[in-house]
Design brief:
about 450 residues; mainly alpha; 20 helices; disordered N terminus; RNA_pol_sigma70_r4_t2
Length: about 450
């Protein structure tokens, strides 16, 4: 990550305010957190303790870096600090002397190779992330608790952001995370990738978590950037590993197809300044055709295995409609609306209904879609979901109801957590206001 590294070095060499230091620390943290947790979990065989100690390393950085400047290798500093705390814990726990010596030697070896810690996540770390996910997806934890815990540990989302992702109260998510960590700590669950029947029990949750990780990378819930490519890449790598572990599981192939097809648009999704470009406005020449072919092959494999009606395969089929359209006007919106209807029959979700409304609007007109969206506005789960007023604003704009559209886009911007998305919605509100003035 040369550009990011250069930014850190420049910041470290210049005087910085506490606010500047904190922003830099959090930017580093978002990248390094999964690596820290997986390394400590491997040492300690205790996932919740590993997360606690990485949080201590973050606090140490927040205390020291504003005064001393950002280290030349910030990821290495965090890793060394977290591992020192892990060793302190092992000493206090009176681990066997031989095991203690081995771990201490391992830490010294890693510290001598600190520059490698600032490179992109490698295949070994990818396997460790997958092992961490399988551990935290133990059947003793509820499905909801597993997903919330993974988003906290791997994506670095706050409790508030996770609550927004699940359309649930923050207190509910906080309780789930606390209970999940307590269960993992008290049960002595092994930190390993299970096999056989045990793997099958956890697979659906693992697939869900991998997709949640991809989604956070695809459209970040917070921060300065709309995309977090390292999370997308990790999710894709884990998806590929999963299809090799369970080659006859159609949903694994369906998930991989969905991620490959979505990721194929990455180069076209932002401009040179990192501002979002909506799908209908994207330069399709920038879509990665090799990745599209890989996605279509994975989707074909899911269908061959009898999984055409699976939740991931259906979503992949929707994205395939976009990928196969040469231009935006060639998109088969009626087909997409039908696929969303099939998906809604498999899993009940107001977000699926909202996406179907977008497709219906493109296929049948904004008036028809607006009826669906207005009905969805009464859904309690969508009360704080910024894309509901955003979609409504777009439909109102198409109907020439510009002042109402402006208000809807303003409401959406107020709910958006990501700075880039907030700015996009404010621009759309301003455009609607200009149209209202000139009409």
């Amino acid at each position: 990550m040369p550009a990011l590294e250069a930014t850190f070095l420049q910041t470290a060499s210049a005087a910085m305010t506490v606010a500047d230091a904190h922003r830099t620390i959090l930017a580093v943290w978002r990248i390094e957190q999964p690596r820290l947790i997986t390394s400590l979990a491997r040492m300690l065989r205790d996932v919740p303790l590993a997360e606690d100690l990485t949080q201590e390393a973050l606090l140490a950085a927040l205390e020291r870096w504003p005064a001393t400047g950002v280290p030349e290798k910030p990821g290495a500093w965090l890793m060394a600090t977290a591992k020192r705390r892990a060793l302190d814990h092992l000493r206090r726990s009176r681990m066997l002397e031989r095991k203690h010596d081995i771990i201490a030697w391992d830490m010294e070896e890693e510290q001598q190779a600190m520059p490698d810690l600032d490179s992109a996540l490698d295949d070994d770390i990818g396997d460790e992330l997958l092992r961490l996910i399988f551990t935290a997806c133990h059947p003793r934890l509820s499905r909801e608790a597993r997903a919330a815990l993974e988003l906290r540990m791997i994506c670095g989302l706050t409790t508030e952001e996770i609550a927004r992702a699940f359309l649930l109260p923050e207190a509910t998510i906080a309780q789930r995370i606390v209970r999940a960590k307590r269960t993992l700590s008290e049960s002595g669950l092994a930190y390993e990738t299970p096999s056989g029947e045990e793997l099958s029990k956890r697979l659906s949750s693992v697939l869900e978590v991998v997709y949640l990780i991809f989604n956070e990378g695809y459209t970040a819930a917070r921060g300065e950037d709309w995309l977090r490519p390292q999370l997308c890449n990790e999710a894709l790598r884990m998806g590929r590993v999963l299809t090799s572990i369970v080659p006859h599981e159609p949903e694994a192939h369906g998930l991989l197809a969905l991620m490959e097809l979505n990721a194929s648009r990455t180069a076209a999704r932002t401009d040179a300044e990192g501002e979002p470009i909506l799908m209908l406005d994207q330069n399709r020449a920038l879509w990665d055709q090799l990745q599209i072919r890989r996605g279509m092959q994975a989707l074909g494999r899911a269908r061959d295995l009898g999984g055409a009606g699976g939740i991931y395969a259906l979503q992949a089929a929707i994205i395939a409609c976009h990928a196969q359209a040469r231009t935006a006007s060639d998109t088969d919106w009626s087909r997409i609306a039908g696929l969303y209807a099939e998906l809604a029959a498999v899993v009940r979700s107001p977000i699926i209904d909202l996406n179907r409304a977008v497709a219906v609007g493109m296929a049948e007109g904004p008036e028809v879609a607006l009826v669906i969206v207005d009905r969805l506005s009464r859904e309690p789960a969508l009360k704080g979901y910024h894309l509901l007023p955003s979609v409504r604003g777009d439909l109102l704009r198409k109907l020439g109801r510009y002042e109402e559209a402006r208000a809807a886009f303003e409401a959406a911007a107020a709910l958006a957590g990501n700075r880039r998305e907030h700015a996009l919605l404010r621009r759309r509100a301003a455009e609607a206001a200009d149209a209202a003035m000139s009409s």
